[in-house]
């Protein structure tokens, strides 16, 4: 295929050998390639890569043009092609994060700035005031619940355990209102809808707890791209700050959240680092971070990871000790139907 006088290649197979060349090209541009993208377009001049761009679901990423080919409108062409393909796949709400020096380029392509971190990364979306509309939705969901002391919890709940219940109950005792945000990207063993329903059922006895869908604005691939996390500790810090800035600037302000509850993290280094950054940054934004020791049963920390492991082993008796009755009923039904996780 021809693109001006350049050759174009579309890659949709993550094992395509050509992706290693894209990786090397991006490293020269100071970027890290995500080998788990769904779609990549590459431009060549005489067999040499001069521009590329990719996406994963509704996130545009890994976009770069060789320095000597800038000024030829190649960024616009790459991004336009990615947008057209995403629309064809049914994605209309798109995100992109980039370096601040590219701000004007993406503004000219119809993207709007959401937030930035350390003046090193900027998050854009293609819906004007999309984050504000999300906050308006949260306010509407909370319209019947008022209080002076308002807290928040963000959790994946994959699945909902007695540990999650313990954390939420502690927050509910100490506050007038608790907003629980369930992570919404479908990247977990259990679907977002199943996880959301299990949290609802497991906290139905707590009348001052509201459950929300985190959507794209809280610990998602848009705000906290997972493919950076195993590459560089600096990237973990940068994207944690981006996510925390969005939470502080928009969500906490809209809901008057003054506290954020977290569980101690004994296992995952990325989550531990994220928690440490929260404890350092959020107080400067008027939000107290309260860390609760993890619930332990018979000397062992309760975790969703442990539950998933036991489910794979078929150890339903052991699972019953770690989850609420509603989660146990769901897991037994799910396990019997599929025989595996």
TrEMBL record:
<dbReference type="InterPro" id="IPR004821">
    <property type="entry name" value="Cyt_trans-like"/>
</dbReference>
<dbReference type="GO" id="GO:0005524">
    <property type="term" value="F:ATP binding"/>
</dbReference>
<keyword id="KW-0436">Ligase</keyword>
<keyword id="KW-0456">Lyase</keyword>
<dbReference type="InterPro" id="IPR000182">
    <property type="entry name" value="GNAT_dom"/>
</dbReference>
<protein>
    <recommendedName>
        <fullName>[Citrate [pro-3S]-lyase] ligase</fullName>
        <ecNumber>6.2.1.22</ecNumber>
    </recommendedName>
</protein>
<dbReference type="GO" id="GO:0016747">
    <property type="term" value="F:acyltransferase activity, transferring groups other than amino-acyl groups"/>
</dbReference>
<dbReference type="GO" id="GO:0016829">
    <property type="term" value="F:lyase activity"/>
</dbReference>
<dbReference type="InterPro" id="IPR005216">
    <property type="entry name" value="Citrate_lyase_ligase"/>
</dbReference>
<feature type="domain" description="N-acetyltransferase">
    <location>
        <begin position="1"/>
        <end position="128"/>
    </location>
</feature>
<keyword id="KW-0067">ATP-binding</keyword>
<dbReference type="GO" id="GO:0008771">
    <property type="term" value="F:[citrate (pro-3S)-lyase] ligase activity"/>
</dbReference>
<dbReference type="Pfam" id="PF08218">
    <property type="entry name" value="Citrate_ly_lig"/>
</dbReference>
<dbReference type="InterPro" id="IPR013166">
    <property type="entry name" value="Citrate_lyase_ligase_C"/>
</dbReference>
<dbReference type="InterPro" id="IPR016181">
    <property type="entry name" value="Acyl_CoA_acyltransferase"/>
</dbReference>
<keyword id="KW-0547">Nucleotide-binding</keyword>
<dbReference type="InterPro" id="IPR014729">
    <property type="entry name" value="Rossmann-like_a/b/a_fold"/>
</dbReference>
<comment type="function">
    <text>Acetylation of prosthetic group (2-(5''-phosphoribosyl)-3'-dephosphocoenzyme-A) of the gamma subunit of citrate lyase.</text>
</comment>
